[in-house]
């Protein structure tokens, strides 16, 4: 995902909130889903931010088949996201990202 796609998704995408994440969806014309991850200094130091990014990339890798195809998905971590385990992050994100519950 290049900067232009990332900015347009932030500006024009549909937003959904969970306790630890803000998720922005925007349809693309590629037929595949892409992920963008943002962590700010509010979420912690560099070690914590990198852990969150690794966690979210692993979530995306393991759950590609459950995601709607053809969307750019931006996940913005909120304060406290660094304390989540992969299972907890999966449960929270599946509430809004999974195909069965995907309502845009």
Write the layout of secondary structure elements.
Elements: H1 3-12, E1 14-17, E2 21-27, E3 34-38, H2 46-62, E4 71-77, H3 86-97
Parallel strand pairs: 3-4
Antiparallel strand pairs: 1-2, 2-4
Task: Domain count, please report it.
Answer: 1
Question: Any low-confidence stretches, pLDDT <50, length ≥5?
Answer: none
- CATH architectural type: 2-Layer Sandwich
Number of helices: 3
Descriptive labels:
single chain; 104 residues; alpha+beta; globular
Describe the protein's architecture and organization:
The protein is α+β, with helices and mostly antiparallel strands and 104 residues long. The chain has one domain (3-96): Ribosomal Protein S5, domain 2 (2-Layer Sandwich). It is 38% helix and 22% strand. It contains three helices and four strands, in the order H-E-E-E-H-E-H. The chain has helices spanning 3-12, 46-62, 86-97, and strands at residues 14-17, 21-27, 34-38, 71-77. It has a four-stranded mixed sheet with strand order 1-2-4-3, with helices on both faces. Helix 2 links the parallel strand 3 and strand 4. The longest helix is centred in the middle third of the chain and has 17 residues, at 46-62. It is globular. The protein starts with a helix and ends in a 7-residue tail after the last helix. 21% of the residues are buried. The mean pLDDT is 82.
In brief:
This protein has helices spanning 3-12, 46-62, 86-97; strands at 14-17, 21-27, 34-38, 71-77. It has 104 residues and is of the alpha+beta class.
């Amino acid at each position: 995902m290049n900067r232009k796609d990332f900015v347009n998704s932030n500006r024009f995408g549909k937003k959904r909130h969970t306790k630890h994440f803000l998720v922005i969806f925007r349809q693309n014309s590629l037929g595949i889903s892409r992920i963008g991850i943002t962590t700010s200094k509010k979420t912690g130091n560099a070690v914590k931010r990198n852990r969150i990014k690794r966690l979210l990339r692993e979530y995306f890798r393991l759950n590609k088949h459950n995601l709607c195809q053809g969307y750019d998905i931006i996940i913005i971590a909120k304060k406290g996201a660094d304390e989540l385990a992969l299972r907890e992050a999966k449960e929270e994100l599946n509430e809004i990202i999974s195909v069965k519950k995907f309502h845009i």
